[in-house]
Amino acid sequence: MWVFGYGSLIWKVDFPYEDKRVGFIKGFSRRFWQGSTDHRGVPGKPGRVVTLVEDPEGCVWGVAYKLPTGREQEVKSHLDYREKGGYRVMPVTFHPRPPLSPRPTQTLLYIGSQDNPDYLGPAPLEEIANQIVSSTGPSGRNTEYLFQLAEAVRTILPEDSDTHLFSLESLVKERLRRETLAEQ
To answer: What is the DSSP annotation of 135-146?
Structure first.
């Protein structure tokens, strides 16, 4: 059983796995449209984390993990709990990065769909940036989530030119810089 990570599963791997492969899935785009009241925000003041939205021209880079043989259900139960905040599981076709390029394989994808109660949907990037700057939850500051994801994508997935992610990162860094200057 393989699981595809496109958000915190890229940089916060808190589960055992047998193998991992960098690659992509088609038909989606990554967006900070999912609310988080269990990790990067709290009830009444949700943070924003990534989900995938359908996009016929889209391509999302990430990491696929092969769950340990004989422990697949145990590890999947851990991931189900971790991704409980509005995510559902669906199968997708994963395309490994060349030159490995074994044929595409089926992987499981956790996705926060529009019909879940934590889905926040689209908003102007400035509004999303403000929400990220002002949100903190049990797993830490929402800015940490954004910065860790951007750095991991830059390092592990240099093919990915995710303009939504990197534009949001720039806006949040600029907002934090302005706040720091105002405090001095």
So the answer is: -EETTEEHHHHH
Token representation of residue 169:
């990162």
Tens of pLDDT, residue by residue over 35-82, are 999 899 999 999 999 999 999 999 999 999 999 999 999 999 999 888
CA separation, residue 102 to residues 13, 23, 27, 47 (Å):
23, 11, 20, 37
Length of the chain: 184
pTM: 0.90
142-148's contacts with Cβ under 8 Å and 24+ in sequence apart are 142/36, 142/40, 142/41, 142/47, 142/48, 142/49, 143/172, 143/176, 145/8, 145/39, 145/40, 145/47, 145/49, 146/32, 146/172, 147/172, 148/8, 148/11, 148/12
CA distance 132 to 87: 19
DSSP 8-state class, residue 103:
P
Catalytic residue among 18, 54, 83, 179: 83
User: What six digits make up the tokens of 121?
Assistant: 């949907």
**Residues forming a β-bridge with 4:** 64, 109
Cβ-based neighbour number of residue 174 at 10 Å: 11
Q: What is the mean pLDDT of the chain?
A: 92
Measured CA to CA, the distance from residue 88 to residue 113 in angstroms comes to 7
Is 83 an active-site residue? yes
